[in-house]
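Encode chain A's predicted structure.
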Amino acid sequence: MNSLQDNLGLPGLIPAEKGPPFDLLRRWRESGDSVHWNPAPAAENYIVQLNRSSIWGELQQGFWVLTRYKDVVSRNQKLFSSHVGGPVIWDLEREALAFQQAGLMGMAPEQHMKAKRLVTPPFSPKAITEFEPEIGRVAKEIVDSIARRGECEFVFDVASRLPVYTFCTLMGIPDTDREKIFRLGNAMADVENALTEGERLTAESDVAPLDELFAYAAWLAEQKRIMPDNSMMSAYVNGDVDGERLTDAQIGMFFVTMSIAGHETTRSTAAHFIRLMSEHPDQYALLRSDLETYLPNAIDEVLRFSPPVIQFRRTVTLDTVIGDREVKEGDKLYLSYAAANRDPEIFDDPDRFDITRTNAARHLSFGIGPHICLGARVAKLQLQLLLGQIVRRVPDIAPSTKPTFLNSIWFSAIVDMPVQFTAEG
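Encoded structure for chain A:
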């Protein structure tokens, strides 16, 4: 019988565990319960209002937790759907479900692939190579801003800045609006914390961050209709799927999704990188011995070891069997990227942090199949350029207090991490 402490539906579990509950996930898998039934957390059943907006989610139904790599990587969208029921684990009413289904993560498969093609050009190898010098320039400016101080709050002074700049550039957002998008994007990632007036938000008005982003997306979309350019937003607004333009809801949801995905993975991974190198000084010494050689694989190992996005949902569309479990039509599946990233069938000694791990890049922290992260290559490039600057210039950087984790059931994110280092002379 499950205790509340063993329930993945509780938003306080990540902060309590300082990340995903790896011991719990391993125990389920090793005990033959690799497809584990997680009941709804009835004793603390909660309703989450998405950042004070009109969109609500509720967690009333339990779900199956998939802990094996081979189960999580299933690409059968007809049998395990991200459209039916949506991609998030909450039980959604009609309006909230429609909101999720309008986004790339929740679209019907046929429409998803066609809509995705509209915005893939900026992520081609050629486009990324052309963008690299600009990302490098901004990464240097960010480290310039803190290098002489000897201390800073790493998450918002450093880690958040580059992905927001990159997102704004790719989306064609005016420079004057970047701070606004920075604030709203960070607030949107804080889904389950920011439920009360003034608790964590610094909004300029009483309008919810979600509604502010939708309003901004509508304004930006109109600008791109009037003056098309080479941005992703312009491509999405002015492109068509089967001869029809995307709806306002689809455009708005695209913008909101990208505002979160465009910075959350990079921001959290940068913070986890600094934390893990401090906790594993032998690995950090190895990294510093040959930064060019070890840094790319070290980033993949951080992503494997501490995935920033720990799960997404699928819904079973026909009665079937996963492993030795019978699952029914309508059942929810919790794809545990955290568990899959430490599956011993794929990763030897999976609980060991090893920047030389030869298959670290097989992690699932960017998703898998048709819903793999569009910007994975850009995210890795940002991390290489930013972290390279940090390791070279302030190599003794380390947390000065314990990091604060986000209260969430799907992000393993650090929201506050003061650091100290020897200031540049």
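DSSP finds 16 helices and 17 strands in the chain.
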